[in-house]
Amino acid sequence: MTKLSDTQMIVLSAAAQRANMLALPLPKNLKGGAAQKVIASLLKQGLLEEIDADTRIGEHVWREAGDGHGVTLAITEHGLAAIGIEPEASRDSAEPTQSGHAAVKTSSKPNAREGSKQAQLIAMLQGADGATVAEIAAAFGWQPHTVRGAIAGALIAPHVATKVLFLLFGGILIFSIVPMLRKRKQDVPHGLISDDLALRLGLPGLYPGGPGGALIHYAVVRVPVGFAMMMVAGVVSGLLGIGSGALKVGADFIERYFPNSQVWVSDPTWDNHRFIFERAGFTVNTYPYYDESTGGLQCEAMVDASDKLPTRSVVPLHACCHNPTGVDLNDAQWVQLIDVLKKRELLPFVDMAYQGFGSGIDADAFVIRELARQGVPAFVANSFSKNFSLYGERCGGLSVICESSEAADRVLGQLTSAVRSNYSNPPTHGAKIVAKVLSTPELRKAWEAELSEMCQRITRMRGAIHEGLRAHVSANMLSRYLEQRGMFTYTGLSAAQVDVLREQYGVYLIRSGRMCVAGLNEKNVAVVADSIAKVLKNG
Fold first, then answer.
1. Catalytic: 267?
2. How far apart are CA 100 and CA 206, in angstroms?
3. Closest CA relative to residue 208, chosen from 199, 200, 218
4. Which of 117, 248, 252, 386 is catalytic?
5. Residue of 252, 328, 351, 364 marked active site
6. Is 510 helix (H, G, I), strand (E, B) or coil?
7. Predicted structure pTM score
8. Which contiguous run of DSSP H or E holds residue 18?
9. In the chain, where does the domain assigned CATH 3.40.640.10 lie?
10. Over the stretch 161-176, which tens digit does the pLDDT of each residue have?
11. What is the per-residue pLDDT across 173-198, written as a single tens digit (0 to 9) for each?
């Protein structure tokens, strides 16, 4: 296989995941002379080729060809092979895309399970600006070698039998357990000097294990072996991953019975919304939602756009704590939107992943109860991953609001079939925990109290950063910290400002400017506010 740099692999992987096989746009951080050098190398190796760009449909232009024509870049069969994808047909016999370009047919097997980390990785690579190894590492909390392994896993997955994956995973578990069991019999050596490679790479030798969770320092040795294990872990994560069941089952059901419908998601939305519905066979469009200038909601534009949608369009909605913006509709706005949904005979698909983190358990479910009260057919996906802290169990539910009990019985029967075809018998540990807590009055009361405390803590952090920035930013920039709700906030910071915030002040946000408010606490919120103020002051 052709040896590729990290940047080359990201460019080619992003191209391979796009429907038109185009390599543009390049990642945001790949510009100027560096971009020219990378592309020149890929062209020279025959991994990319220049083709005519169709600017009528918004294709990006790599260079002007004269006479008003532009040239764009497409991945070649050799490029696909270089990243582990073997085309089933040559470009000459491939089906043309919307733009008229030939698209290379790859394996018909799904490349990723919807909702998995592999799927999220692919979604990042499919983004308009792609993603760097550093951005992927930050998003998943991985090491760079794990990222490279995950990309490799995403590319290998369609070509590896399921039994082989299970055997590989089992072997890796056994291999990993043996050293851990040995550690129980002997202490990790402390006070030793890490090897030269670890020192050059700046690898920390520490782990929480002291009194009160204090960090314990130790020597870092055998670095190549450790990197190899991270690489393997990345491959496994790319090959296996985890699912997002309620959304997937609902999407499959709707596509079966309304195959000509299209999906309309908020701009922006959770990345996996687009990915899940696209993989179910839908065309996914967007409706106006976030107002960049105010950090608030484009309510009028959202309602107007919904009023123009074709009948039976599917409209995913965030019940509360909108991800990624933190911008929610108020009760009056929900009622206004529901009137349009009813009039246009649209199908709302409500995703409620953060119930209890906005205005409380009951208040956060307002739109669902209002849809049911008005008898509007709707799908509702809810998650217990956040409000029960059951991330590893992936526990949630799918509910369908039907016009009658008879219709509900028929829908349940068809949903059972969809469940069977997706995952058949899911783990029950998380579901049993949730059922036990919700059905036991004392446990439910304790859970509701703890969830309320979490909600209040997030609200306090919003208030604290609002206060810390009061003297430094405009009213528009400031109000979002109080008006947006839940775990996430769009700060309004540009990608360049986020880079400065990270590099100069050690405060980490993703490059869209989204902040995880839940990551703030009484000890760091003042530092974060001061750092943001300094970045804004310096432009």
1. no
2. 55
3. 218
4. 386
5. 351
6. coil
7. 0.57
8. none
9. 245-433
10. 545 655 665 666 566 5
11. 566 556 555 554 445 454 555 667 66
